[in-house]
C-alpha cells in the first residue's frame, strides 16, 4: 500500500499529539508531511526532529526564524513557513493526502476550508470551523472530492453507527434521531451558586477526558455540547429537533443513533481520542490505536440523565443559534471564544460566560451567511462586542 502523507494543523495540541501517537504506530501506512503550531515552538522543534516533515508552520516570522535556528544543525531539511498563508499552503499542498484539522477555534477555518477545497481526506476535530461556516463548509465538501470524517468522539460514534456507505453531508435513510452523549463536565451536580466562584483550574480538570484548555472550559459550561449539536446538524444533515443531548457521566457510550424500526445503535469505548483518530486515518479499515478494549465489568453500570439548561444555559443558546441560522452560530462561537479566554485569564466569572454570549446574540443583528466575507465580518464584530461586554460584566452590571 502506498504511504499516505499527513498534514497536522495544530500538531502541538492535545489532538495533534494523539494523532502523532497513532501515526507513529503505523510507519508503513503514514508519513508526516507538515506540522503546525501557534506558539509552542519548542514542542514543534522536537516533533520535527522525530517525524522529519517536509514543512513546519509557526504563527509569525520571529517564531519561524527561531524554529529554523533550532533545526539548523540537525539536518532534517524541514522548510519553515508562518502565518495563515503557511497554514493554507500545507493544508492544500498537492502532495498531502490527509489533513488533520486540530487547530482550536476560528483560527482553523481558512486552512480547514482550503483542505476541503483541495479535495483532501479531512479529519475534522476543529468543530468551531464548521459551527461558524456550516452551509458554506458543507457546500465546499459536496463540490469537491474531499472525504470529510468526524473526529469529535460523539460524531465519530454516530458516523460508525450509520449504514455502511454513509457520507457526511447526507441524511442517512431510516434515522429517526441521534443521541449526543455528554459527560456533564466537572460541575454536573453543582448548584448555580457554587459555580459562581469556580476557578480556571477547577474548570479545566475534566473528569473523563484530557483535552486542551478551551474545550475543557466548553465542556464545563456545556457549550461544547451546544457546539456539537450544531456540528451534528451539519455533518448528518439533521434538524436541531432530531438531535437530543443525553448526560452520561461514565463517558463510555460516545453517542447513539435511533432508527425508525425501534433500533438504537451505540458506539462504546474508553474515552481516548486515539480511537476516533485511528478510524479517521484508516477508514474504512480499522487499525491499532494504542487504546485498550473497554472492560464492561470494570465500568459496571451506565447512567443517562436529562441536561439541566437552567444551570447550563449555553446548551439552550447554541440550540437557539442554529435555529436562527445565518451568522448566529458564528456570533455564538466568537462570543464564546472571547468569554472563555477572559475566564481563563481571570477577567470573567464562570457564570458570566453565558451572559456575555446571550447579550452578544441579542444585541447584534444577524445576517444571511452568504459568503466567507460575511461570516468573517460577523466573527470580528461579535468579538468586539463581546470584549466590550466583558468590562460591563466585570462591574457586575
Ligand atoms: P489544544 O489547545 O490542545 O491545541 C490546539 C492546537 O492549535 C495547538 O497546536 C495550537 O498551537 C494550535 N493553535 C491555537 N491557536 C491557534 C491559532 N490562532 N492559529 C494557529 N494555530 C493555533 O486543543 P485540542 O484539545 O487539541 O483541540 C483542538 C480542536 O479539536 C478544538 O477545536 C477542539 O474543540 C477539538 N476537539 C478536541 C478534543 C480533545 O479531546 N482534545 C475532542 C474533540 C474535539
Ligand atoms: Mg466531543
Task: Describe the model.
The protein has 397 residues and is of the alpha/beta class. It has a domain at 4-151: NAD(P)-binding Rossmann-like Domain (Rossmann fold). 46% of the residues lie in helices and 15% in strands. The protein has 17 helices and 11 strands. The strands form 2 sheets. Strands 4-3-2-1-5-6-7 form a 7-stranded parallel β-sheet, with helices on both faces. Strands 9-8-10-11 form a 4-stranded mixed β-sheet, covered by helices on one side. Strand 2 (30-36), helix 2 (41-51) and strand 3 form a beta-alpha-beta unit. Helix 1 crosses helix 12 (274-282), helix 10 (213-221) packs across helix 15 and helix 15 runs antiparallel to helix 16. The model has no long low-confidence stretch (mean pLDDT 97). Bound molecules: nicotinamide-adenine-dinucleotide and magnesium ion (MG). The site of nicotinamide-adenine-dinucleotide has 26 residues, from helix 1, helix 6 and helix 10. The site of magnesium ion has 4 residues, from helix 7.
Q: Could you outline the blueprint of secondary structure elements for this entry?
A:
Blueprint: E1 4-9, H1 14-24, E2 30-36, H2 41-51, E3 55-58, H3 61-71, E4 79-82, H4 83-92, E5 98-101, H5 109-117, E6 121-124, H6 127-143, E7 147-150, H7 153-161, E8 175-182, H8 192-195, H9 200-203, H10 213-221, H11 223-235, E9 243-247, E10 253-259, E11 264-268, H12 274-282, H13 296-299, H14 313-324, H15 328-344, H16 353-363, H17 372-394
Parallel strand pairs: 1-2, 1-5, 2-3, 3-4, 5-6, 6-7, 8-9
Antiparallel strand pairs: 8-10, 10-11
Helix pairs in contact: 1-12, 2-3, 4-5, 5-6, 6-11, 6-15, 10-15, 11-14, 14-16, 15-16, 15-17, 16-17
The structure holds nicotinamide-adenine-dinucleotide (NAD) and magnesium ion.
Amino acid at each position: 500500500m502506498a504511504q499516505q502523507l499527513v498534514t497536522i494543523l495544530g500538531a502541538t495540541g492535545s489532538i495533534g499529539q494523539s494523532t502523532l501517537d497513532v501515526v507513529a504506530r503505523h510507519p508503513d501506512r503514514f508519513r508526516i508531511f507538515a506540522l503546525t503550531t501557534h506558539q509552542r515552538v519548542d514542542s514543534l522543534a522536537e516533533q520535527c526532529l522525530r517525524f522529519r516533515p517536509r514543512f513546519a508552520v509557526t504563527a509569525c516570522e520571529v517564531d519561524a526564524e527561531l524554529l529554523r535556528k533550532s533545526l539548523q544543525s540537525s539536518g532534517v531539511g524541514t522548510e519553515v513557513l508562518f502565518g495563515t498563508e503557511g497554514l493554507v499552503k500545507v493544508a492544500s499542498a498537492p502532495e498531502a493526502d490527509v489533513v488533520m484539522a486540530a487547530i482550536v477555534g476560528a483560527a482553523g477555518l481558512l486552512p480547514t476550508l482550503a483542505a476541503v477545497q483541495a479535495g483532501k481526506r479531512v479529519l475534522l476535530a476543529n468543530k468551531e470551523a464548521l459551527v461558524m461556516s456550516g452551509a458554506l463548509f458543507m457546500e465546499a465538501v459536496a463540490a469537491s472530492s474531499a472525504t470529510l470524517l468526524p473526529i469529535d468522539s460523539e460524531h465519530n460514534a454516530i458516523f460508525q453507527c450509520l449504514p455502511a456507505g454513509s457520507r457526511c453531508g447526507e441524511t442517512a435513510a431510516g434515522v429517526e434521531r441521534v443521541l449526543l452523549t455528554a459527560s456533564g463536565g466537572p460541575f454536573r451536580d453543582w448548584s448555580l451558586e457554587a459555580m459562581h466562584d469556580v476557578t480556571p483550574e477547577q474548570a479545566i480538570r475534566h473528569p473523563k477526558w484530557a483535552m486542551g484548555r478551551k474545550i475543557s472550559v466548553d465542556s464545563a459550561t456545556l457549550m461544547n455540547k451546544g457546539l456539537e449539536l450544531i456540528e451534528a446538524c451539519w455533518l448528518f444533515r439533521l434538524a436541531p429537533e432530531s438531535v437530543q443531548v443525553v448526560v452520561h457521566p461514565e463517558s463510555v457510550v460516545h453517542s447513539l443513533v435511533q432508527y425508525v424500526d425501534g433500533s438504537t445503535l451505540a458506539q462504546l469505548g474508553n474515552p481516548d481520542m486515539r480511537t476516533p483518530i485511528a478510524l479517521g486515518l484508516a477508514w474504512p479499515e480499522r487499525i491499532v490505536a494504542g487504546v485498550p478494549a473497554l472492560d464492561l465489568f470494570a465500568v459496571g453500570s451506565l447512567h443517562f440523565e436529562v441536561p439541566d439548561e437552567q444551570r447550563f444555559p449555553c446548551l439552550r443558546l447554541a440550540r437557539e443559534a442554529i435555529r436562527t441560522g445565518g451568522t448566529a452560530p458564528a456570533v455564538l462561537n466568537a462570543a464564546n471564544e472571547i468569554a472563555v479566554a477572559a475566564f481563563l485569564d481571570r477577567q470573567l466569572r464562570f457564570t458570566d460566560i453565558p451572559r456575555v454570549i446571550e447579550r452578544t446574540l441579542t444585541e447584534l443583528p444577524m445576517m444571511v451567511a452568504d459568503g466567507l466575507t460575511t461570516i468573517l465580518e460577523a466573527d470580528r464584530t461579535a468579538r468586539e462586542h463581546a470584549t466590550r461586554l466583558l468590562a460591563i460584566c466585570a462591574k457586575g452590571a
